[in-house]
Design brief:
21 helices, 541 residues
């Protein structure tokens, strides 16, 4: 639970935050403040043990320090700005003859929240009342925001005049925020009013190409997307150069994503350059120790991401959540889909020349360290009394091996490896107790999240098919019946009489029956550690 501290700033606020209540697990479900001044919160969910907690202050009452004249003046100024914003917001969503005259001067405000409130007030009025004023405006902030309103509310017939009016505000004369706002006007015009005529498009390419690449990643993102949409001649080469130089994983993904559906302007070396990015940024690169399940098994290694940075804000989120950075369970699928989209743009000749790059080379899944045979049909009561032993004297290596033997890694992403069929498990101990985790392994159908619930399809002949719906069109459905083998069944919709949520979990029972008691405890310790070999449970006594 975080405490957020607000400081008035113009018509809005700045904020800092800090952890207020921490626990492991701390699966908070609701927070309320009582008349007694205490904070009350509940935990639980997903069939786990619920709890009600009270947090109250103990100690002498803290007196607030008197505010300085400067602070009082700042608060008064901020209160006036918020009052103005509220007045502008009173015009939102309905027509008022006074709205345009009142709001227009505030389009030029230095406060972006005032500008926003003024623009929405104007957009709520008939376009005919303010269209000419937007096209004629010469003040930079007011002009850009007036044209943004016209891009949102105007028709195709206004597009040429709108884009020509933007020329009054050359990009070289704007600061970064103003540049982004101008580019947003262009982007919205293309989205809502369609691609401009050839002459305007040519002019736009010349102006935007002069700015690309920019020094800012934010500007490069907007410029990249606009130039790709316009199919600018040099956009592929410039974007690939930015891809090579991008210091963060997020920037690289943005360029790969933006280029994926561009069909024109490629040379064969550029195609090879683009597709060569994927092997080192998706499962399939050399390394071990876990694997991803797509069409086939692929080894995966953290070494692939060496040298790539992440923003301080993103890393701080993971730090505050008491875990290391992780890509998330859907990351491999996103990358695979980018690649799939890009392959679909290739001609038959290009597919032939790039066959070695775009054709997957399936590899065998890593084998467990030791062969495992059936040990016992484990029950919760067999292990519940031993859960205290999970916290000390455990083996990281054996726990990691058990994660593979029990086939957890095929369906669950953990510590930047694994599959994406089931929920991500790196931070599972932040949400569930050891008992909860044990029960979810031994009794997977006790509580099934609707996010991962299977569907049962009943057919006319009385048979039924149960699994995850992965594809559907007007004539058929495709159901994945086994997440471990990726087995799929196609069923004609005409043959289906009913569909309903399945009561059984997609996760099979008995996955740990080939593990010994000690290996199960090591597995629980491994999951509780978030993949950290230095966790307290693995320290030698």
């Amino acid at each position: 639970i975080f405490a957020v501290h607000l400081t008035p700033c113009g018509a809005s606020y700045n904020a800092t935050f800090e952890p207020f209540v921490k626990g492991k697990p701390l699966n908070v479900t609701d927070v309320e403040f009582g008349k007694d001044g205490a904070m009350y919160f509940t935990t639980g969910g997903r069939g786990t043990q619920s709890g009600l907690y009270r947090v109250s202050y103990v100690g002498e009452r803290v007196k607030e320090s008197p505010k300085s004249k400067t602070e009082l003046a700042q608060e008064k100024e901020a209160a006036a700005a918020r009052a103005l914003r509220h007045k502008l917001e009173s015009f939102h969503g309905h027509q008022d003859a006074k709205a345009v005259e009142f709001a227009w001067p505030h389009l030029n405000s230095e406060d972006r929240f005032i500008r926003y409130a003024a623009r929405i007030a104007i957009e709520s009025q008939p376009v005919a009342q303010w269209q000419d004023r937007a096209l004629a405006e010469t003040r930079t902030n007011a002009g850009i925001n007036g044209l943004l309103a016209l891009a949102r509310c105007g028709t195709k017939e206004t597009q040429n005049n709108l884009l020509k009016a933007l020329a009054k505000f050359p990009l070289d004369g704007l600061d970064e925020d103003q540049k982004l706002e101008k580019l947003r006007v262009i982007e919205l015009s293309f989205i809502r009013q369609d691609k401009p005529d050839a002459a305007i498009a040519k002019m736009a390419i010349e102006k935007l190409d002069h700015q690309y690449p920019a020094k800012s990643a934010r500007l490069n993102r907007m410029l990249c997307e606009l130039l790709i949409y316009l199919q600018a001649p040099d956009v592929v080469g410039k974007t690939l150069a930015l891809l090579d130089a991008a210091p963060t994983q997020e920037e690289q993904i943005q360029y790969v994503f933006s280029l994926r559906k561009l069909t024109n302007g490629w040379t064969m070396p550029q195609r090879e350059h683009y597709f060569s990015w994927f092997p080192s940024h998706r499962p399939g690169a050399e390394g071990e120790p876990t694997y991803w399940k797509g069409a086939s098994y692929y080894p995966w290694s953290k070494k692939d991401q060496q040298g790539l940075q992440h923003s301080p804000e993103l890393l701080k989120w993971f730090t505050d959540a008491d875990r290391e950075y992780g890509d998330g369970s859907s990351y491999p699928k996103f990358i695979a889909n980018f690649r799939k989209d890009a392959v679909e743009t290739l001609t038959d000749n290009e597919r032939g020349e790039l066959a070695n790059i775009i054709t997957d080379q399936p590899k065998e899944a890593p084998k467990a360290v030791a062969e495992h045979k059936f040990v016992k049909d484990w029950k919760v009561e067999d292990l519940q009394s031993l859960l205290d032993e999970v916290g000390k004297g455990r083996s990281f290596a054996k726990g990691k091996d058990a994660f593979t033997v029990a086939q957890c890694v095929q369906c669950h992403r953990f510590d930047d490896g694994g599959g994406a069929v089931g929920p991500e498990l790196t931070a599972v101990s932040s949400r569930y107790t050891r008992k909860d985790i044990l029960e979810s392994i031994l009794l997977p159908s006790k509580v099934v999240s609707e996010q991962y619930q299977n569907t049962t399809f009943t057919k006319k002949d009385g048979d039924d098919v149960t699994g995850r719906l992965v594809e559907e069109d007007d004539k058929k459905i495709v159901v994945m019946t086994n997440p471990l083998t990726q087995a799929k069944i196609e069923v004609l919709k005409a043959d289906i009489t009913n569909r309903a949520a399945a009561k059984l979990s997609p996760m099979p029972e008995g996955l740990v029956n080939s593990l010994t008691q000690e290996e199960i405890l090591d597995l629980l310790a491994y999951m509780e550690s978030g993949g950290k070999a230095e966790a307290a449970a693995f320290k030698k006594e």
